[in-house]
């Protein structure tokens, strides 16, 4: 019988769908396997295509290339420990060169975060200095909000990398909150001709009212 429960992993995939993500590059691992299973055997027909790479650093650079070509964040996904830390070179380069990237890594269960357990490390702190946004999801119901914030930050102002760490028990938890719609990122630079014309018209209208 198919599993009809809606898990954190489903919320991750549906959040990517909501942001029109077409590809996910990366390497699976125990702490994020449920998400990879959802990508490999999608329930949503609009799910991104999963492309498994030979190394996490390669996946990060490919995602950055997608970001540079399309102007939309390329997505890379890895497991915990070295799976996450191997992203560092690709993400720091993406941030320095203005390539939008969304990186998602697995993490040990929340109960093990402060213990010296296998692959337990502070992912969010590791990536904070080299990304525009770095956060760890602590509640399953907040998955889509954190991912939307990360995606928005990767595309806002000078583009760059965002990083989200997701503990294994968060991806494996039941989620009841619907995924949220994308957040529109503000853009720097001159207004388009259409926007400039509309602004001039509004300014003229306001000036006439004050006469």
TrEMBL record:
One of its GO terms (molecular function) is thiamine pyrophosphate binding. This is Acetolactate synthase. Its EC number is 2.2.1.6. It comes from the Bacteria. Keywords: Transferase. Residues 8-124 form the Thiamine pyrophosphate enzyme N-terminal TPP-binding domain. Belongs to the TPP enzyme family. GO terms for biological process: isoleucine biosynthetic process; L-valine biosynthetic process. It is an enzyme of class 2 (transferase). Coiled coil: none annotated. GO terms for cellular component: acetolactate synthase complex. It comes from Lactiplantibacillus plantarum subsp. plantarum.
